[in-house]
Specification:
Blueprint (H helix, E strand, L loop, with lengths): L5 H6 L21 H17 L3 H27 L8
């Protein structure tokens, strides 16, 4: 995909952008199609399974491991920065 095509392809993933100019950048960003699908899956699981602690912890650990796999290099760079100290 060419760099100039990227904004349009990303924009298409946010249904609200088809009918609104969304300028709220605070705590609630625009909802993407993949987040909506994941949220609906979460609600279906809640209806199906209730609140079994082990199941939710297992899903959280899987998400954390996946996130750590792609963010570790950035995290390592951040942690290796020199820290400022107060005099």
């Amino acid at each position: 995909m060419a760099a100039r095509e990227l904004p349009a392809s990303v924009r298409d993933r946010f249904p609200i952008f088809k009918r609104k100019v969304y300028v709220n950048s605070c705590s609630q960003g625009a909802l993407s199609d993949s987040v909506r699908v994941a949220y609906l899956s979460y609600l279906d699981d809640w209806d199906e399974r209730g609140a079994p602690w082990e199941y939710w912890v297992e899903l959280m650990e899987a998400a954390r491991a996946e996130f750590a796999g792609w963010s570790a290099p950035a995290w390592t760079r951040w942690r290796s920065r020199p820290r400022c100290r107060r005099a």
